[in-house]
Amino acid sequence: MSMNNQGRPSRPEDIEVQSVETFTGNRALQIEEALIFETGHMAATGVDLPEPKGTRSRLGGLERKGTMNLPGLAEPEAMRHFVRLSQKNYAIDMGPFPLGSCTMKHNPRLNEKMARLPGFAEIHPLQPVSTVQGALELIDTLAGWLKELTGMPAVAMSPKAGAHGELCGMVTIKAALEARGEAETRTRVLAPESAHGTNPATAAQCGFTVDAIPADDTGRVDIEAFKAKLGDDVAAIMVTNPNTCGLFERDIREMADAVHEAGGYFYCDGANFNAIVGKVKPGDLGIDAMHINLHKTFSTPHGGGGPGSGPTVLSEALAPFAPIPYVVSDADGFHLIEKRSQEEGDHHSFGRMTAFHGQMGMFVRALTYMLSHGGDGLRQAAEDAVLNANYVLARLSAEMTPAFEGTCMHEALFNDDFLKDTGVGTLDFAKAMIDEGYHPMTMYFPLVVHGAMLIEPTETESRHELDLFCDALLSLAKEAKAGKADKFKAAPVLSPRRRLDETAAARKPVLRWEPSNDESMAAE
Amino acid sequence: MRYLPLDTEDRRAMLDVVGAKAIDELFADVPADALNPPLDLPDHAGEFAVERQMAAMAGKNRAAGAGPFFVGAGAYRHHVPATVDHIIQRSEFLTSYTPYQPEIAQGTLQYLFEFQTQVASLTGMDVANASMYDGSTACAEAALMARRVTRRDGILMSGSLHPHYESVTRMNGGLVGGKATVSEASPDGADNVIDLISDETACVIVQTPDVFGNVVDLEPIAKAAHDKGALLVAVVTEAVSLGALKSPGEMGADIVVGEGQSIGNALNFGGPYVGLFATRQKFMRNMPGRLCGETVDAGGKRGFVLTLSTREQHIRRDKATSNICTNSGLCALAFTIHMTLLGETGLRKLATLNHEAACATADALSAIDGVELVNDAFFNEFTLRLPKDAAEVVEALAAKDILAGVPGSRLWPEDESKHNLLIVAATELTQDKDIEAFANALKEVL
Fold first, then answer.
1. How confident is the model over A474-487, as a mean pLDDT?
2. Whether residues B200 and B254 fall in one domain
3. Which chain A residues are within 8 Å of B428, Cβ to Cβ?
4. Contacts across the A-B interface (CB distance below 8 Å)
5. Tens-digit pLDDT profile for residues B33-60
6. Which end of chain B is least crowded, N or C, by CB within 10 Å?
7. Pair B315, B177 in one domain
8. Does any CB of chain A come closer than 8 Å to the CB of residue B113?
């Protein structure tokens, strides 16, 4: 999650590296690729369109004049450009992607195939409801699975990603407090120090102040400290379970009871639901709201940073405030409630999260995945995810230092004690993994563990692949302890780029191509 | 269970290494009575069984390409070149994560840099971010950003802003003391938004082409906003229009947000889409979302990194400019590929074809007795005033397999004065025979 040491931009150290130079800069299968703005032409296009008829324009005199500076490429050039770029990326299809808290699991291609059926991909969010009954059925079916797996009575489907789901949950809580006449007085939200950054950011976006709950020495919420912070100004708690240390909050019911007794709500960050799906229903633990990252637990692809999808399950107390639009059904079929004025009964929605109905393309992929796994397969997936993480924890403990004693859930957390006095930091250790052919684990997160390394293998790694991975990390750990710090400081040297100067990028941001960019960079 | 590589023997051997006798020992922290609950769900299924079930649901929907199609109002049916879908399905793009390790994510980072450049150029702005969820959430974030920049609370929206954008912006922008107001705008383009700008206005949010299809001259609004120290947020829901119309940046906008779906992305029943967010250099550090910047590596080679992340939630937590984390990376890639294939030449031509199709459709339909075209200037979408409730007409035409557009009651159920309005969109995929079928059927049902 965090990009480097506590988010400070880093810059590479000045270390001599012997490398094989080529005349072209290319390195066999690694081909250097310029920006489209450097190779394209204003007249070039890779799309053949019919000739316009020359109709008189009715644009009100606001025609665009002058160049837009948008060069084009012919189709073969464009294909080559993007394929070459793709070859500079690591991907889950190439090897383990052990980013803790991010859940990089295999993305089945059946999901992609189904999402491209014209009946799903080529339907418009505002075409008559009578012509999209299958789409509404799909949303309703997926909602049914999510409710059954979480043991919750309602789900808001429209949030576009995990953080958007958090916003949905917290705005719902705010609406419920308003209905109780307590929105003005309940302004404090409690969240553990180890929380994802999105939790405090979301709470603040809703106007709440955030109060950190300390962790105990087992890596879980300090229940006594937590209870001491409760009061009649507390709107909600935001707790991730399993938490960001990869541990199940064993006092979760006590927390739920305590916050409810204090008149607040329990928002559960469901980013790690993949560890318990099919094994535990969060609804049985006393939560009021939880978002589900379909792009984590239900394998919709991360796509280099999105799109995600964050349906948010809600308790009976919160369900009436759920956002529009939502699907209802009766004997005549499925219907959409798109405006508050169309609501019936106890519903009084807080409003709208997004223009349309949510991430339909992700819904199709997630439901395809669920149907493929079934209830039995999802439970097995959670068990295998936890088993794989514990296997890695057990094997790596031979050379690396676990942050906490005992077993873990779906991710194994280490601190940097094993690197003490080696001159090698967490960042260096992670960068050395790149040269060994692995994507680094999550570094420096959670913030409560010094030099944290959070490894989430997921259930889709084989034992063989895990053994190779563990062997590589054990070798690196031994090498670091043997005093080979320089190698770590220089790493990676075999990747398409070596360490990048983030400090320079942040000091003088260049966020777009301009003809003069190259000269100005050279003059630095 | 084809997605699970472990077999029974692996599991037993691995439990041995872990030192557990059974898997549930690893779930010992879960309250015992909550562990392994009954699940009222079907068991796992093979590929063709799943395909059948999904295809059955897909088959109940009328796909855009199955007949005449004129639905728009914030999402548009355009042709996406085959190359786009091929490239975005490459493993290295589809199955990679947010590029936090730039040494092995230059592919993603370089296309994000190209995306940011294209969006900035298209909108006529200095800088753009690496995408938002969609146009509507980008609009809400623009309101929040304008409040940060101006330290004011007033969010003034034009009545001709897409009503769903208005709802999202009102909800999100109004959470912490934001005060949303909406101007009176009529379908023919009249709008009193300038009169409502005050010293408390953080931003004026105006859409062009607006929800009725009118092309809006932003210059006078920008001037009026700037005179009062407010920012102009321009909203573009049809990105292809930027190939024909003067850019919002040229007309004085301070922030431009938009829906990028039209370029490279399918309709997908409303998502995933790609939110565009661009602004002026001086506001760069107030932007929400990820930014990709140029730098050099240890060997002096040009490379790209995520930058200015001290604005973001994973570093700044409750002081972040936004809570956004995951955005629309792959949809932004689709946008960039399609935009690269089009180039400026192709985009201009595509825009012209869209405008011509809309002109032809508007002429054919407004020639029908009782049907009135309300717009003077429009791009690829316009509004008709019908002699009866437009929703009834849309249903009657759907029964004839013509998807005629968006009726006013779908967007403004509370405002009966708009229920006779029909918003009609045409694109490069609209054929003459579609227009003819629409006109003939409309005559029959009126």
1. 97
2. yes
3. 49-50
4. 745
5. 999 999 999 999 999 999 999 999 999 9
6. C
7. yes
8. yes
